[in-house]
Design a protein that fits this description.
This protein has a domain of 48 residues: Homeodomain-like (Arc Repressor Mutant, subunit A, Orthogonal Bundle). It has four helices and no strands. The longest helix is centred in the middle third of the chain and has 20 residues. The model has no long low-confidence stretch (mean pLDDT 91).
């Protein structure tokens, strides 16, 4: 008889983000970098929207609720990234 295993908790997203950002900064190897915040936000937003739209099977109302956005804002972002 096998014991049921509890699902493994997902790795905190912040750990993956910190690891990726640290790697990026190391690869700069002393080169100047400016406006890192805007760059990171732009790099993360599109894949976030893609993943949430996939997880909600394209349901914009569910996606907006999951993201904490109103549906109009979500639609604007989806248009911006040509995801509609």
């Amino acid at each position: 008889m096998s014991a049921s295993k509890s699902p493994k908790a997902p790795r905190p997203l912040r750990e993956s983000a910190e690891e990726s950002i640290s790697t990026f900064l190391e690869q700069l190897d002393g080169a100047d970098c400016s406006d890192l915040h805007s760059m990171v936000m732009a790099q993360v937003e599109e894949p976030l929207l893609r993943a949430v739209m996939k997880a909600t099977c394209g349901n914009q109302s569910k996606a907006a609720a999951m993201l904490g956005l109103n549906r109009g804002t979500l639609r604007t972002k989806l248009r911006h990234y040509k995801l509609l």
